[in-house]
Amino acid sequence: MTLLSVDGIRKTFGGIVAVEDVSFDVDRNEIVGVIGPNGAGKSTTFRLLTGFHTPDAGTVEFDGEDVTDHSPDARARSGMIRTFQIAQELTGMPVMQNMLLAAQGHPGERAVTSALGIGGTSAFEADQRDRAEELLKLLELWELRDEYAGNLSGGQRKLLELGRSLMADPDLLLLDEPMAGVNPDLTDRLLERILELRDQRDMTFLFVEHDIDAVMRVADTVVGMHNGAVLSMGSPEEVQSDDRMLEAYLGGEV
Amino acid sequence: MALLDLFLVVGIIAGVYSLLAIGMNMHWGDTGLLNFAHAAFFAVGAYTSAILTTPTPEAGLLAERTVGFDLPVVVGIVAGTVLAAVLGFVIATTSVRLEGDYLAMVTLSSAELVRLVIHNEAWLTTGAQTLKNIPRPMESTVATLPVSYDVFYFLLVWALVGATYLLFERMSNGPFGRVLHAIRENDDVALALGKDVTQFKLKSFAIGAGVAGLAGTLWAHYVYAISPVMFLPSITFLIWAAVIIGGAGSYAGAIVGAVVIVFLRQVTRFIPGSVPFSDQMSYLRLMLVGVVLVAVLYYRPEGLLGNAERLQAGTSEGE
Asked: Which of B196, B207, B314 sits opposite A111 (nearest CB)?
């Protein structure tokens, strides 16, 4: 069953066509990796999917609903949560606060309920703390829960960013280069977690990634991009053996 | 006894400024919004309450004001607070999507616009002239008590400062404040986590403006008479100085900063005219605020009660 459907999206910046007629589907419970060399249009595609850019043409459908004109926060509330390429922790907030921020539908986020502590604020907050504790222990960040996120190492920030997006309990998690700048050992753990989550929580993943090995290991479907267009799509083996992808990476004429 | 009277007067002004600083701290300290319209919220609170609680002036007086409602003071205080919050919401609606400096410019000009409207709409506000005879709350009741009115008003103002402080602390430390802090740190992250950033900014702006309006009502009912020159942008700048000196993000700091500023401003008024440079004293008094501000930023960048650890963490690069 299709969860995310991208149909003919296009985006130009001035005279540059960043993304041209990109279409693909992501099925429920699938892991899709988007790969491509620098300038292939991966990041623009990612921003179009998450609402940080609006496409000039084409549509994005999520869970049967046309979300093309929805704002990033509206998309997040409907169940698609993104991470950032350079981990964007709220450095001036403690790890635990970073986690709790991601809770969806928090009754205490209204000024009055927050000031007066009414409307089920404290009960909800306590539940979320339990969930955060579980996730932080899993990611080996529990000891650092009261530390400001700005004091974490780069790898720990990546883990926190993953943990924070999981706190939002998304249906679709969009990861922007989750392996960038992460040591191989940590990459393995992240990939392991993604596979576990897919099975346990029935989650769907789409990630944009430079690290082709990582993509090939976990993705069910790979979308290979070059010059703003989809060049090759299929199983990792199919895309890997597609000569055009190889040439794109090596800089040959396509 | 005279010293006690002076203390009460300075204390009341400091209480009013503390409320202003609490509002500003919600904008800047919690949400990272550069609000330069604070004097306007202060003015709207003061004028709203003054117009609602004074009777319609008799015809033929010098002032051409034709509107007055003669309502109880408590109605004026509530209405002044609410109307300032509404104004905050309206100004924010036009500008809150702007980035930092641009927001500062638009809010500053909005505040001047409000002041000029007050200055020109004499039928409503007595214009450039002084709006006089603003009633003091419970004045006749307090007169029967063995304490002076200033004691009563001092306690009233500081009770309101205390209540406001507690409410704002709770908001700031609760889930609502958490979202504001996230917006202060990084808009995009808040968006990516499903927070309606614009809505939260509007709320922050309206709530902070409302408290500034409350401060305005308390000011008007204390000083009997108000005029547009009391609401120049310099008020906004002094409140900025108070928030920065106290430590942005800390409500206790906002109060301490406001007290420091008011103390510096008021005590230096009594420097006798015989000292050197006494002609330039009014400028020197303003410079003193600047000197204190620079000294605090140099020796304690996070402010007197600010959070140094947070500031440090916020600037680190990771790895």
From this structure: B207
- Which of A118, A146, A167 terminates a domain? The answer is A167
Residues A108 and A54 in one domain: no
User: What was the pLDDT predicted at B14?
Assistant: 97
Instruction: Judge whether residue B62 has pLDDT over 80.
Output: no
Q: For residue A187, is it within any domain?
A: yes
CATH code where residue A44 lies: 3.40.50.300
In a domain, A86, yes or no: no
End-to-end CA distance of chain A: 33
Cβ pairs bridging A and B (under 8 Å): 126
Name the nearest CA neighbour of B51 among B86, B76, B19. Answer: B76
DSSP string across B167-206: HHHHHHHSHHHHHHHHHHH-HHHHHHTT--HHHHHHHHHH
Q: State how far Cα B151 lies from the chain centre.
A: 22
Longest distance between any two alpha carbons in chain A, whole Å: 65
Number of domains in chain A: 2
Among the listed ranges B11-25, B63-77, B264-278, which one has the minimum average pLDDT value? B264-278
- Answer whether A183 touches B (CB < 8 Å): no
CA dist., res. B137 & res. B131, Å (int): 17
User: How far is the alpha carbon of B45 from chain A, nearest alpha carbon, in Å?
Assistant: 21
- Residue that terminates a domain, selected from A110, A135, A167: A167
Tell me which chain A residue has its CA closest to the CA of residue B170. A115
The answer to whether residues A158 and A200 belong to one domain is no
Q: Are residues A153 and A179 in the same domain?
A: no
Residue A10 lies in a domain: yes
Contact residues, chain B, for A87 at CB < 8 Å: 318
Percent of chain B with pLDDT over 90: 71
Query: Do residue A185 and residue A241 come from a single domain?
Result: yes
Interface predicted TM-score of the whole assembly (ipTM), two decimals: 0.90
Judging contacts by C-beta atoms under 8 Å, the chain B residues touching residue A76 are: 191-194
Give the residue numbers spanning the domain of A59. 1-79+170-253
Residue ranges in chain A modelled with pLDDT below 70 = 251-254
Longest dimension (CA), chain B: 75
A162/A188 same-domain check:
no
Mean pLDDT, rounded, for B175-188: 94
Are β-strands A221-226 and A229-234 bridged in parallel, bridged antiparallel, or unpaired?
Answer: antiparallel
| pTM, full prediction | 0.92
In the structure, what pLDDT confidence band is assigned to residue B216 with cuts at 50, 70 and 90? Answer: very high
CA pair distance A139, B261, nearest whole angstrom:
47
Nearest residue, CB atoms, A88 vs list B188, B194, B309:
B188
Residues A175 and A247 reside in one and the same domain: yes
Question: Nearest chain B Cα to A175, which residue?
Answer: B192
pLDDT of residue B318: 41
Interface test with A, best of B97, B168, B170, B189 (most A CBs within 10 A): B189
**Conformational region of residue A53, where left means phi above 0, alpha means psi within -120 to 50, and beta covers everything else:** beta
Please indicate, yes or no, whether residues A163 and A174 belong to a single structural domain of this protein.
Answer: no
Residues A27 and A133 in one domain: no
Distance set, CA B148 to CA A98, B152, B153 (Å)? 51, 7, 9
In a domain, A234, yes or no: yes
